[in-house]
């Protein structure tokens, strides 16, 4: 794809075949340990070391033998991930995710905290995150009826999943459900969505005898049975929601949430289907503000000597509510900026 004056962008893979970056990382670390550097496991950093002028000269870590200080001739690069497992930080910076589950572990914002204590600035605006759910089954973005954990409708279903957390902040759970009936093929085809034939959908259905299902798309002969399979306890509320939704569909206008009439399809023909989804936190793409060389900057915009941040420990890259999926989508922009930022930081520090 050409850019500017004939420049081109090239996408390539730099990971072993058959595994994702999480599986590739140990292989890279083993290679690093064999060739160019020492690798310390189970040695978490707890505090940065600074000289009298505020320059970062090392880091104190905790090992099984106690605390150890590692001195840095060139600088310290913070790459410790995000803070999704620190409830206080999530509550302060992302209150809209108060009810969300976390999909990773050990992400307690250690590097962000250490950089802040050393004089760095945490990104002051709304923190971008990944809080969508495309992994619970097919047709994730199809505008079927959406209900929350209590069986109540809560938004216009024409929204993109990247905006879902804005609506779930008003509910007491981050779990929600897509509800549709056996006319889903015709309905999806009418709005040019992702079409799934019964044969394609079958592997996602736990109740399918042939496949024994691997997803969370439940199928039932009645709405009451569907509610039970999905774990919706307030069955009466759920039934009333479907009844009201069907009334709006038959009237041809969504007086409750303003959904496009093209997506208003009544749920009347058995069997009925429901997909359980959860917009928990996959990643928080925000952290310490840095300059172009990934140096952490202070409140006056000046780089703190010897201190760098990269990956999701750094901020100032994204600005939307959620990781950008809408519009001109760029593959691997999150992992890509992590790799590029780490490279830029290491290159700058090495050349000091």
Can you describe what's shown?
The chain is of the alpha+beta class and 352 residues long. Helix content is 25%, strand content 18%. The chain is built from nine helices and 14 strands. The chain has helices at residues 21-35, 87-93, 110-117, 164-168, 184-190, 198-201, 223-230, 235-251, 333-350, and strands at 2-3, 7-8, 45-50, 56-63, 66-71, 76-78, 129-130, 145-148, 175-181, 217-220, 272-278, 283-284, 295-297, 303-309. The protein has a four-stranded antiparallel β-sheet with strand order 8-9-11-10. It has a three-stranded antiparallel β-sheet with strand order 3-4-5, covered by helices on one side. The chain has a three-stranded mixed β-sheet with strand order 6-14-13, sandwiched between helices. Strand 4 (56-63) and strand 5 (66-71) form a beta hairpin.
């Amino acid at each position: 794809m050409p850019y500017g004056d004939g420049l081109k962008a090239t996408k390539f893979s730099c990971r072993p075949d058959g595994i994702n970056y999480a599986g590739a990382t140990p292989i890279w670390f083993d290679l690093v340990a064999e060739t160019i550097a020492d690798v310390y496991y189970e040695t978490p950093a707890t505090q940065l070391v600074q000289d009298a002028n505020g320059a970062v000269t090392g880091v104190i870590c905790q090992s099984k033998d106690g605390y150890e200080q590692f001195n840095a001739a060139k600088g310290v690069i913070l790459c410790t991930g995000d803070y999704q497992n620190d409830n206080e930080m999530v509550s302060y910076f992302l209150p809209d995710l108060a009810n969300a589950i976390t999909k990773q572990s050990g992400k307690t914002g250690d590097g962000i905290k250490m950089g802040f204590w050393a004089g760095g600035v945490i990104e002051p605006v709304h923190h971008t995150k990944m809080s969508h759910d495309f992994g619970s089954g097919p047709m994730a973005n199809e505008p079927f009826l959406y209900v929350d954990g209590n069986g109540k409708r809560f938004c216009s279903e024409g929204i993109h999943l990247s905006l879902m957390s804005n609506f779930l902040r008003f509910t007491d759970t981050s779990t929600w459900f897509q509800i549709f009936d056996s006319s889903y093929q015709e309905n999806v085809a009418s709005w040019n969505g992702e079409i799934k034939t019964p044969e394609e959908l079958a592997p996602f259905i736990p109740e399918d005898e042939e496949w024994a299902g691997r997803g969370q798309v439940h199928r039932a002969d009645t709405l009451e049975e569907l509610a039970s399979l999905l774990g919706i306890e307030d069955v009466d509320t759920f039934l009333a929601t479907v009844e009201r939704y069907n009334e709006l569909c038959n009237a041809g206008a969504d007086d409750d949430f303003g959904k496009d009439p093209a997506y208003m399809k009544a749920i009347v023909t058995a069997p009925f289907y429901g997909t359980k989804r959860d917009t928990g936190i996959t990643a928080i793409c925000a952290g310490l503000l840095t300059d172009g060389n990934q140096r952490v900057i202070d409140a006056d915009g000046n780089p703190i000597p010897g201190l760098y941040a990269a990956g999701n420990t750094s901020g100032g890259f994204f600005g939307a509510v959620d990781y950008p999926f809408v519009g001109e989508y760029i593959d691997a922009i999150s992992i890509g900026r992590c790799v590029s930022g780490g490279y830029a930081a290491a290159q700058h520090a090495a050349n000091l």
